[in-house]
Write a structure and sequence with these properties.
The chain is an alpha/beta fold and about 210 residues long. It has a single domain, classed as Flavodoxin domain (Rossmann fold). Strands 1, 2, 3, 4, 5, 6 and 7 form a 7-stranded mixed beta sheet that branches. Helix 1 links the parallel strand 1 and strand 2. The two termini are about 20 Å apart. About 5% of the residues have low confidence.
Amino acid sequence: MTAYRLVVLSAGLSKPSSTRLLADRLADATVRRLAGDGREVDVTVIELRDLATDIAHNFVTGFPGAALGEAIEAVTRADGLITVTPIFAASYSGLFKSFFDVIDPDVLTGKPVLIAATGGTARHSLALEHAVRPLFSYLRAVVVPTAVYAATDDWGSTGDRLTDGLPGRIDRAAGELAGLLVGRAPSGPAADGGSEEETVVPFAEQLAALRV
């Protein structure tokens, strides 16, 4: 069975970081959901902090370095993405945006994407909806309905009767991403060196998968 290619982009600046921690939890939850359906997943984690210099050089020279080129290729070939950014000044980080500025704007067309973010206070949670989601809508990605924001206080929270805690939001978003992925065939390697054939899934089927 061909495995799905899941790429996880973390824009955390420290090491370790809560951004990477959230990215790992989202990836683990997605893999569990897909494994429950008998699906295999290859996960590639990309730390954007390690590519900061290459990204800056790309703006000046117009060419990616080796490491940045590999990251762009991984995103291009991915079946789905998990993207996590810290929130600064009520928006995504400059490093996060810069990465998407140097890739081909058509790379994400039709690609399932789970968006998430971290911050010190819950006041910035709406940045996912007014900044991050519009970015991926512009890039014509298919963004899952549930965006996951983790403030400092969320890590120990179980939520209340009206609001899911962080583990519940992670599980719901992972289920939505898994639902979109199972609605399409894994890309896999191109046969005989030819181009990969895109599988077009009717929109009604994609909506049905999200309700599972």
